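Milestone 3.1: sequence recovery, worked example.
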């Protein structure tokens, strides 16, 4: 049976090949469609995950959880409108940890030191993000400027990446020397990082991010969620998942559509789009962490 990472590698390079034939405008449209489909969907079933984690079967508990979730999303949106620099920094940190946790949660179960495990996952995820930032520093600079009104020189992204990579290698060496299970996966994971770097280097910002976000994060996350909610990942459980997540997915798409209709002719749309993603990312990170914690 072909393992999913092998499928993701083939799909990634197929995506790069397709990219060479697509007009830039069509490439951006398809990239956003991918993000809005599997990308948004993988976080749309958070309410069901929370209910399952907390064993909250009663309707009153469900609605209480739903209210808490909405409050967190709105708080994130308010934070972006009042303290955008802080909100963006938190978004990058939360996203970095979330990406690292998704990639490594099954591979670090033998690491008993919670601090080391969390730090490693955070650094790994930040390496991935800053690879994107470095290879598309001009585009990222424009988005950051639109969100925060601060122009961050592209060289800063490179300096941060040069700091993160040695930290990642040092922690990897520590884990390599102490944990046998880590030795079995470390070089494979390093190869995946090289694949990501190629994706980000060759692609545009939206296309490269879409390929990584869908193939290497969202789909693996959905597979984990299916196993947690229904005991296995199959076409049948995927249908159940989609049915449960549909209303929240539509609500998210409606919010993004409203942003587009209001600001489609303004350069700030990309900034608002990523701000919206950030607002729904904050609670999602906590939900997935709780899910992995309960699995352990």
């Amino acid at each position: 049976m072909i393992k999913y990472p092998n499928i993701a590698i083939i799909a990634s390079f197929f995506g790069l090949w397709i990219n060479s034939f697509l007009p830039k405008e069509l490439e951006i449209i398809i990239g956003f469609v991918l993000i809005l489909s599997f990308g948004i969907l993988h976080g749309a079933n958070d309410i069901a995950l929370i209910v399952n984690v907390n064993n909250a079967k009663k309707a009153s508990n469900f609605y209480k959880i739903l209210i808490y979730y909405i409050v967190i999303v709105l708080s994130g949106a308010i934070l972006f409108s009042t303290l955008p620099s802080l909100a963006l920094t938190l978004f990058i940190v939360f996203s970095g940890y979330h990406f690292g946790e998704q990639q490594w949660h099954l591979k670090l179960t033998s690491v008993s030191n919670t601090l080391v495990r969390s730090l490693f996952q955070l650094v790994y995820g930040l390496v991935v993000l800053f690879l994107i930032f470095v290879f598309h520093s001009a585009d990222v600079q424009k988005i950051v400027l639109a969100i925060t009104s601060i122009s961050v020189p592209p060289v800063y992204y490179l300096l941060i990446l040069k700091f993160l990579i040695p930290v990642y290698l040092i922690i990897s060496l520590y884990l390599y020397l102490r944990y046998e299970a880590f030795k079995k996966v470390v070089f494979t994971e390093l190869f995946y990082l090289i694949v990501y770097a190629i994706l980000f280097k060759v692609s545009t910002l939206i296309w490269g991010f879409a390929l990584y976000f869908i193939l290497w994060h969202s789909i693996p996350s959905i597979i984990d969620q299916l196993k947690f909610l229904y005991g296995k990942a199959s076409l049948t459980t995927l249908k159940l998942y989609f049915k449960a997540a549909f209303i929240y997915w539509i609500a998210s798409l409606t919010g993004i559509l409203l942003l587009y209709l209001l600001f489609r002719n303004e350069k700030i749309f990309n900034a608002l789009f990523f701000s919206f993603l950030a607002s729904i990312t904050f609670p999602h990170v906590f939900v997935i962490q709780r899910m992995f914690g309960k699995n352990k």
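Residues 235-263 form the longest helix (29 residues). The radius of gyration is 19 Å.
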